[in-house]
């Protein structure tokens, strides 16, 4: 009997303790052995791998590490915005969880509106703020905050019109397997895409539908290219619809307004990890009481600062490629979804 052993997805198929390609090909020799700085001196010498919400960065009064990527378990990104049962539970709610000692120190009570100012650890620049509801809890540690990333939904209009029909059932919109290494797939254009009767027809549907009517309030947005603002202007209301009328026969029973959430992700700048390139989601924030006129759900974003923050992370922390480099990322590290051709990894840099 031949036994097949699984191996690790490394170049030598072993669990590497010292990573040669990381040291030689990708210019990070000091991190080729797993390591995390333990002392202030080590952290200062190795800023590329020190968390941007490390205690050493929390120098301002009332500064916290905000966890933006935990989620209250009744929502699934945007996909549950029209699930009436889940939205009755969640009500677009994503408060700031704050430890009871910190809340007492700052004088915040459950339900208070608080202003959450996002400040970058690398550049010191402010991204802006969002206004959220305070919920003191024993569920988070002092010095940390949590805000579920599936609440704070918004929309600019109450309905949307889409031409009815996708195909007549006779057209296969994608007859070729999705594979970006397959030239036939790359050359294929789905038939009738974007046209009326370009997809499967839906009976008894005139093309106009309520848009996330169970979980998404109406907002007003202002943008001038430098600063963006958003404010809720209308909460959820009971409604009637001909679309899926039987399933939605109780839509007139909506009793929640959905105005207790805040779109936190809009404020945060892009934080490209200097080694992996992935976005670093946690944020350094400074809490203060809501200002006159503030309401839960208000946001203000400084786009100019956010671009400077991205540039700061890129220029201060990364080790850029040069003309001798031919790859933008290691080819042996798998990509999700579909295989990629060599062109997806190749770079041609001129000094």
Structure report:
Helices cover 13% and strands 18% of the residues. It is of the alpha+beta class and 351 residues long. Among the domains are: 51-154 and 223-320, Beta Barrel (Barwin-like endoglucanases); 322-351, no CATH class. The protein has a six-stranded mixed beta barrel. A two-stranded antiparallel ribbon has the order 6-7. It starts with 19 loop residues before the first helix and ends in a 34-residue tail after the last helix.
Strand content: 15-25%
Q: Calculate the terminal CA-CA distance, rounded to whole Å.
A: 57 Å
Top-tier CATH class of the domain at 51-154 and 223-320: Mainly Beta
Major beta sheet summary: 6 strands, mixed, barrel
Compute the number of strand runs.
11
Backbone shape: globular
Task: Bin the helical content.
Answer: 10-25%
Give the helix/strand class.
Answer: alpha+beta
CATH fold topology of the domain at 51-154 and 223-320: Barwin-like endoglucanases
Return the string of H and E elements.
HHEHEHEEEEHEEEEEH
- Radius of gyration equals 25 Å
Q: How many helical stretches?
A: 6
CATH architecture field of the domain at 51-154 and 223-320: Beta Barrel
Q: Which runs of at least 5 residues are low in confidence (pLDDT < 50)?
A: 164-173, 196-200
Q: How much is the average pLDDT?
A: 84
Main β-sheet, spatial strand arrangement: 1-5-2-4-3-10
